[in-house]
Amino acid sequence: MIVGIILGYLIAAEQLSSLQNRIQTLETQVTGLQADKTQLQDHVTSLQDDKANLERRISEMEAGNVTHIVEPEILAVRFSPNGGAASQVIYWLERANKSVHILIYSFTLDSIGDAIISAHRKGVDTKVVFEKSQISEHSQFFRLADVGIQVRNDTNPALMHHKVTIIDGTIVLVGSFNYSNYAEDDNNEDLLVIRSYDVASAFEQEFQRIWSVGR
Are residues 90 and 196 in the same domain? Predict the structure, then answer.
């Protein structure tokens, strides 16, 4: 009889241990499922946000409004001498539809001047700020002014050393590349073409700041 009691006790203890192990396993599974649920909820929220952003951008596109690109897109990288920097500037000037705003240190290239004049004659809002110390008989300043393009001299007592063009509020051409024969044919220069509403907006603010005090 005592042996039977002991055996019964051992069996019960083993069953209890098995139940405790099963409970622990189930609790671990529940914890894992809860973590998965939280991750799925976060993922669903992220997808809903993406969906809302896409719907907003589609609505803006359908309305003809410019939508911003969150991550800047690099459209071109060019180097001088004779690396296609000038032709890249001309390429984008020819595709301007709304605005061309330029801050430029040295500007003597007729070919880029031609492209700016062409944009102006299409009705594109065209404005150029020149570094005053670089105005000479070779500068495009007087040529652009003669055809009615809005041009101003920078009033910074030091140098306005920018070389940047902002096109249609979305395309930015920026780098060391001046719009000059030396930059195109002789110097080591660089030009970067970026498509980004955010980047263009930042440069546009700088342009407007300099333009507002230019003369």
Answer: yes
Q: What is the extent of the structural domain holding 61?
A: 1-65
Helix or strand (DSSP H, E) at 150: strand 150-153
Instruction: Take residue 136 and report the two structure tokens written for it.
Output: 């000479």
Residue 175 and residue 177: Cα distance in Å, rounded?
5
Q: Into how many domains does the chain fold?
A: 2
Per-residue pLDDT reduced to its tens digit, 152-169: 999 999 999 999 999 999
Assessment of whether the complete model's pTM goes beyond 0.70 = no
Lowest mean pLDDT among 12-21, 150-159, 202-211: 12-21
Distance of CA 215 to the CA centre of its chain: 30
53 and 91 inside one domain: no
Residues forming a β-bridge with 164: 103, 174
Q: Which neighbouring-strand residues pair with 76?
A: 193
Q: What is the pLDDT of residues 122-136, one digit of tens each?
A: 999 999 999 999 999
Asked which of 65, 88, 121 is the last residue of a domain, the reply is: 65
Q: Let me know whether 93 and 157 are in one domain.
A: yes
> How far, rounded to the nearest angstrom, does the alpha carbon of residue 49 sit from its chain's CA centroid?
21
Question: Residue 82 carries which side chain, given as an amino acid letter?
Answer: N
